[in-house]
């Protein structure tokens, strides 16, 4: 099953199981089913609960906030995550504030789905990974889709949280296969890190024996895997990949023993340089493991520039597996 | 709806309506006074001169209706809950504060009443609430107060568009006091609010009257139709802000302020004996409230 199908199936199940959930977004109705088909079939199966909206990102997220405030639950699709910038006010100043600014906890079960990332030639305003702009907002949880995850469980977790959640979905994953049965490929296996609340670990045979740990969100998982393959086959360096389901709030505690054992940590993400999620993770790792790492945590991200449309130029800007390989090698030498 | 003579406004009101008007008036005056004494911090926007709007609307609203308020919301809150203790405690961060002192003057949530301090932000939220109500609680509506300046925000139009498209039970009450902070409406609003509302196919009423009975008579059938599924209603009150924008920041000329005062519902000559009695009662009550609330310990946070 492809990741797109898995997400679509998860949405079908969420709507079937919980009549209080509504889905809203631009062009989400059948037969189109959303720009990336993630909402396919929903409007036919749940008429009235799936709303096609005007092109009004701020308005739609506000409506979702209102639905949640009145006792419902809402899942919004932002057509391209770049456009979530237009909903910044509703996300940062309304939904995430309201869960605590009225002096007592208020439940606002609300998910904003954000198809993100480049690699498809959509150009500067349709290719960004804006996760970093939403890191560190009190009352706002940031998640990212991973090809290792159970997406039904993921939606369940976000709705149960009772706080607004942003879900970044790297578009490149949509057509990728969802991993299953703990097997990533012929070299690597995966499982959930016990007690981690949804961190997948991917490794060769023993997660405790890695030379280096790579922490990466779901959208970068394939590039991390490719890097790990190169490092293992060509340099005999074994890496452990950790893929957290939730990027923020993020607690490095359950990962610490693994990071300490390896003594070398790389954080890889697709965001452009500067003020990144990785910097936040690195700070936590440094605070905890300073003196027990061989080198400071290495940050791997896209270049500090717009994301060009032409494939060869886009490649130069976006983070690639080769950059991860390089970072790991530099850390270990 | 035209304006009527000032005396008529207060004389034809029930004790209850007049008492509420006066409670809001004296509450707001007291706040400015406390500000002057340094007993209130941050900012506070009083609704002096505009009190009659929420008082007129109060009986048109059901307990199950949602009300969204803005930065100038003390009157909206008091007209709904008649709870000067909780509100003053909120504004001064004392025990018994409606929101534990976290929200303060501009951020209050109590039951189905919510205010927030970002202009225009509440309209999409009210639209979402109205969407829920349309399907889950037919007959119940969401009402949102905004100022004229807030019609500069795009969120207003996104919300009106959706509310009209989906025929939602939403009432947008605009308190057009002719000014936004320091900017006259003529310098920030092209065209008219009525034309803007009508452009979305919303029903619209312009209200000049400051007489609660007249306002209620005019609005009751319109609210009823909104409840029954006729779609959003936009009401524009031509009103006057008598006080400063917030604390002492009035940039208007003396003449402009005099003009605003000329439209006050509060009779400058003291009014009838009944008025004088209720006025003295409200003033004394607010003194009691302030004395009691300010003697309370500071508020603690829940959760
Ligand atoms: C988005 C936003 N921009 C600016 C402000 C600052 N501000 C607070 S009140 C106000 C004026 C609002 O004018 P209007 O809507 O006419 O309401 P009034 O104050 O006259 O009641 C401004 C600019 C704000 N609170 N929110």
Automatic annotation (TrEMBL), chain A:
Record-linked InterPro entries: PDHB_mito-type (IPR027110), THDP-binding (IPR029061), Transketo_C/PFOR_II (IPR009014), Transketolase-like_Pyr-bd (IPR005475), Transketolase_C (IPR033248)
SMART domains for the chain: Transket_pyr
E.C. no: 1.2.4.1
Transketolase-like pyrimidine-binding domain location: 1-176
Highest taxon listed in the record's lineage: Bacteria
Pfam family, one: Transket_pyr
Alphabetically ordered keywords of this record: Oxidoreductase, Pyruvate, Thiamine pyrophosphate
Cofactor: thiamine diphosphate
Reactions mediated catalytically: N(6)-[(R)-lipoyl]-L-lysyl-[protein] + pyruvate + H(+) = N(6)-[(R)-S(8)-acetyldihydrolipoyl]-L-lysyl-[protein] + CO2
A GO MF term: pyruvate dehydrogenase (acetyl-transferring) activity
Keyword Oxidoreductase included in the entry's annotation: yes
EC top class, as a word: oxidoreductase
Functional summary from the UniProt entry: The pyruvate dehydrogenase complex catalyzes the overall conversion of pyruvate to acetyl-CoA and CO2.
Protein name stated in the entry: Pyruvate dehydrogenase E1 component subunit beta
Organism listed in the record: Nonomuraea angiospora
Automatic annotation (TrEMBL), chain B:
Top class in the EC scheme: oxidoreductase
Alphabetical list of InterPro entries matching this protein: DH_E1, PDH_E1_Alpha_Subunit, THDP-binding
Protein EC: 1.2.4.1
A molecular function GO annotation: pyruvate dehydrogenase (acetyl-transferring) activity
Record key words, sorted: Oxidoreductase, Pyruvate, Thiamine pyrophosphate
Cofactor: thiamine diphosphate
Coiled-coil intervals: none
Chain ranges of the Dehydrogenase E1 component domain: 23-263
Record protein name field: Pyruvate dehydrogenase E1 component alpha subunit
The organism of origin for this protein: Nonomuraea angiospora
Taxonomic placement: Bacteria, Bacillati, Actinomycetota, Actinomycetes, Streptosporangiales
């Amino acid at each position: 099953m492809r990741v797109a199908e898995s997400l679509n199936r998860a949405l079908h199940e969420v709507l079937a199981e919980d009549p209080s959930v509504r889905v809203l977004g631009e062009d989400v109705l059948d037969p189109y089913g959303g720009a990336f088909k993630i909402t396919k079939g929903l409007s036919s199966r749940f008429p009235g609960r799936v709303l096609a909206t005007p092109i009004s990102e701020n308005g739609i997220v506000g409506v979702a906030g209102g639905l949640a405030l009145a006792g419902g639950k809402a899942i919004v699709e932002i057509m391209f995550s770049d456009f979530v910038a237009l909903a910044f006010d509703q996300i940062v100043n309304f939904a995430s504030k309201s869960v605590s600014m009225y002096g007592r906890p208020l439940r606002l079960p609300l998910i904003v789905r954000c198809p993100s990332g480049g690699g498809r030639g959509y150009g500067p305003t349709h290719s960004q990974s804006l996760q970093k702009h939403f890191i560190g907002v009190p009352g706002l949880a940031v998640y990212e889709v991973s090809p290792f995850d159970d997406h039904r469980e993921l939606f369940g977790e976000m709705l149960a949280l009772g706080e607004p959640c942003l879900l970044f979905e790297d578009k490149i994953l949509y057509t990728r296969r969802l991993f299953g049965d703990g097997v990533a490929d012929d070299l690597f296996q995966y499982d959930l890190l016990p007690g981690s609340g949804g961190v997948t670990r991917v490794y060769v045979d023993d997660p405790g024996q890695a030379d280096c740990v790579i922490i990466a969100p779901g959208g970068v998982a394939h590039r991390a895997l490719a890097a790990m393959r190169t490092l293992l086959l060509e340099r005999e360096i074994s890496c452990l990949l950790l893929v957290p389901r939730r990027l923020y709030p993020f607690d490095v505690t359950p990962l610490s023993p693994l990071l300490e054992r390896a003594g070398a940590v790389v954080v890889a993400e697709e965001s452009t340089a500067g003020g990144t999620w990785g910097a936040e993770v690195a700070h936590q790792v440094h605070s905890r493991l300073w003196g027990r790492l061989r080198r400071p945590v290495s940050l791997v991200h896209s270049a500090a520039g717009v994301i060009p449309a032409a494939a060869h130029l886009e490649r130069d800007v976006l983070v690639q597996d080769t950059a991860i390989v390089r970072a790991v090698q530099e850390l270990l030498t | 709806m035209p304006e009527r003579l000032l005396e008529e406004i207060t004389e034809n009101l029930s004790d209850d309506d007049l008492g509420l008007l006066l409670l809001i008036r004296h509450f707001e005056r007291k706040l400015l006074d406390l500000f002057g004494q340094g007993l209130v911090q941050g900012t506070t926007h009083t609704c002096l001169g505009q009190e009659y709007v929420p008082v007129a609307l109060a009986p048109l609203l059901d307990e199950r209706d949602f009300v969204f308020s803005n930065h100038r919301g003390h009157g909206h809150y008091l007209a709904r809950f008649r709870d000067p203790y909780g509100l003053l405690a909120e504004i001064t961060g004392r025990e018994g504060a409606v929101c534990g002192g976290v929200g303060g003057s501009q951020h209050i949530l109590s039951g189905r009443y919510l205010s927030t301090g970002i202009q225009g932000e509440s309209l999409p939220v009210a639209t979402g609430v109205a969407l829920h109500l349309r399907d889950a609680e037919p007959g119940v509506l969401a009402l949102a107060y905004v100022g004229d300046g807030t019609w500069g925000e795009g969120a207003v139009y996104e919300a009106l568009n959706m509310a009209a498209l989906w025929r939602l039970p939403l009432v947008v009450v605009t308190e057009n006091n002719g000014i936004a902070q320091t900017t006259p409406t003529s310098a920030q609003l092209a065209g008219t609010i009525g034309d803007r509302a009508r452009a979305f196919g919303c029903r619209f009423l312009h209200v000049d009257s400051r007489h609660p009975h007249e306002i209620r008579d005019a609005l009751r059938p319109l609210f009823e139709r909104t409840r029954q599924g006729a779609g959003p209603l936009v009401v524009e009150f031509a009103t006057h802000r008598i006080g400063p924008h917030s604390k002492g920041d009035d940039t208007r000329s003396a003449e402009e302020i005099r003009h605003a005062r000329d439209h006050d519902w509060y009779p400058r000559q003291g009014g009838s004996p009944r008025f004088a009695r209720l006025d003295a009662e409200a003033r004394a009550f607010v003194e009691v409230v302030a004395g009691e609330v300010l003697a309370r310990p500071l508020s603690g946070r829940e959760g």
